[in-house]
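Example record for the data management plan.
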Amino acid sequence: MSRSMFRTLVLASTALAGAAAAQTAPQGVTALDAVTATATRTPEVAGDVAAPVSVVPREEIERRQPQNLNDLLRDMPGVEADGLPRNTVMQPQIRGLGDDRVVIRLDGARQNFSSGHRGRLFLDPLLLRQVDVLRGPGSLLYGSGALGGVIALRTVDAADLLRPGESVTGIVSGGWQSNNTLWYGSLTSAFRAGPMDGLASVIGRTGRNSSDGLGQGIPFSAADTVSGLAKLGWTVGGGLRLGLSALGFGENTTIPTAANTITANNIAKRRLRQQQLALTGSYAPAGSDGIDAQFTGYYTDVGIRERRVVPNDGRYDQTDYTTYGFDLQNTSRFALGALGRHTLTYGIDLFRDEQEGKRNNAIRREFPKAEQTIVGLFAQDQISLGPLTLTLGLRYDRYEQDAAGQPGRSDSRLSPKASLAWQVTDWLSPYVAYTEAFRAPGLSELYATGVHFALGPTVFNFFVPNPDLRPETAKNKEAGVNLRFRDVLTPRDSLRARLSVFQTDFDDFIELIVTQPAGSNGTTQARNVSRARIRGIEFEAGYDTGTWFASVGASALQGRNRTEGGPLSLIPAHKASLTLGYRFLETGLVVGGRVLAVATQKDKPQPSYPTSGYGLIDLFASYQPTEGPLVGWRLDVGVDNLLDHAYRRLSWDSGAAPSAYYDVGRNLKIALRTQF
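Corresponding structural encoding:
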């Protein structure tokens, strides 16, 4: 690891120590104290898990007033978002891997939509109660696609909204943001009646094009959206609870069909709709260590309708992607004498994807009608042997894929995991881990035909199907240490930290190979062409006294193409972030700020150019009165990119020439909420 990587972490640690210099307050709780089940499928404190998992809690979501998922993740070590800054097309990347190399789950339902440059996740982030991010391969528990990691999103429940003693509540909120003249409003109601509880919420947004740090309008970044969420829960008794949820999202906008690029061709009026239905159940009878079961059955559907207006030829594209799935697991806890205490989690998950594209009501071969079914069986045993915790796991996946008029195929994969954590003292717990992951080839990678792009009236580039693609695989070695302290500088304060180093080797990377002979037709085909290696170091820490709070995140990554030599194209630059805030507990006022420092990234494939480093400063304040006539009201005010800096994220700045635009400039944000 280079010296600059370690310098970044040293500076971040020094900043945290300085921020926590003179605190006095009641017991503090950091984000690393949050409960997460993403890394192990069983609830654990985030800072105690022998894996690099980070959590964004509800309070932070409200404070940030996010327009997109990147607003919540950009400070996180090793995490970034690709694509032009258009809210519904930016996709998260973990450790340099994005698209369907990251598994995204929303309330337990996989979000598998993948269609060229059209985006992947369609959701209003204000509906979320928590975001968990597991960095590094995670196929043992989540199957195909978890090469880079897993993002688990959880929407709000009635229990999150009802105040103590309330049986019904209503919430009205609205907000405005200056950069894109965004207005939004929401209505929410929640109830609890005996064993039943539920909620309903709707959020609408309308805005103009965003402006970058030079004051230039970012073209086609305006959109009108509406989101809805409904939930119903029934605590049956005897440890049994059932739930039903429905989630919807709609967007109307004018945008390139390659929506996450800067292209000014193929502009379309886009109408997007997503819907999700989920049935959930949990069963954990009192006094039974052998049964702690959870079930999720789900249906998600994404439909995009695009009528081309540049050129204005009326071309009409339909893109549909549907996923059906279920996930069943149980956890049994038992002791085997000298063989330790065991937490055995085992289960099955299955999902089926169906996609179909049409153009002017005829088959669109570039997005062929195709299906895949993947079923996985997994088991993981956490074995407590005094101060040692040994975790062993194995998963078996079988997948079948086919498309109309083309040969079907099937394959299978084993994904093992092993980790060992040692609780040396109450405050020190080092760990080592080895994990594997895989990604089955995408349906379009296997079966796409038709025109990829045109170079003139008679010269084209055509997709060529490749049904013989092998799955991509990842093998990850990781070592880390978790630290936790109380009473560090003041009575009952809390300091949490995690440092991890990793190396991941990838085989059979799938890349689109474009061949275009001069003056004649060319081809584009997905092929297994490369081996790659990504290594890095990540650090995160949180300090909280109840009044003062601070958090630090830092990462330094390096990626190499081990087949052709040279760097990988989308490895995030070294970065460090610091958040510092103060709570006036008597009045309900919270103030603070964030700093994000990102280094210049020169280590890019050629032809290319360095992506310049940048620094961003954000400020925030929230006011939620604790007494008096304004109890139940909340005001949030923030300024993102205070200095109106012109910068570009590496993940959409990787071409041979720089974009004409920069990322979003200064943005004043105001939100007002009342609960009654």
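Summary line stored alongside the record: The chain has one domain: 3-631+647-675.
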